[in-house]
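Quick start: what a row looks like.
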Amino acid sequence: MRLCSRLEYLLARFDQEKVYLVGNSWGSLLGVLTVAQRPELFHAYVGAGQMVDLPATDQIYYDDTLAWADRTDNTEIATKLRGNGPPPCADPLDYEAALTYEHEVYPYDDSRAAESSAGFSENLFVEEYSLLEQLHNLAAFLDVFSAFYPRLQDIDLRTQVTELDVPVYLVQGRYETRGRAEPAAEWFEILRAPTKQMIVFENSGHRSLFQEPERFHEVMNNIRAEQTG
């Protein structure tokens, strides 16, 4: 993996033997696969908004969104979903109808969170980004979804990674959608690791480390203290 070669470069540059790896959302898939390949490079793995099986997640999203559309008489959305058919979708744009309405299908009060339901998109317009960088970030997101998402369809951690040789911590939001939460809970249950812990953030959904950053900082300090004795 290129990620491992880059990590080895950083370890050498900063004179470190190991690092703590944090993976969020689809990055959590990459994180688990990387740790499974090169466990000697890591003190521990921390998964936030852990993804496990994208086809299973997409199917649940499709079913729940269609049920919500029928229940609320959103006939346009229901018709579009039925027209696209259930996942997997040959055209990545067909996923849009099942994913766009997440916060209507799975509503919760995010007023106490540091990040709103807009998620990472609200960080696109921070002053640190120039206008050109904002445009590039948006284009990059679209490119990643259309080019990279299809390549993740064959991954199911429940069958492919059932053991990790490092401590594992899952930081999950209380209001994570069931399409992500249920596969993550199933994977965590069967996972074998030196130690493992599920940590639930009470005011978070999918992006717990951004929605409760102070709590996440505390958790990371605690993990470091546990691993260094």
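That is the whole record. The mean pLDDT is 89. The first helix runs from residue 2 to 13.
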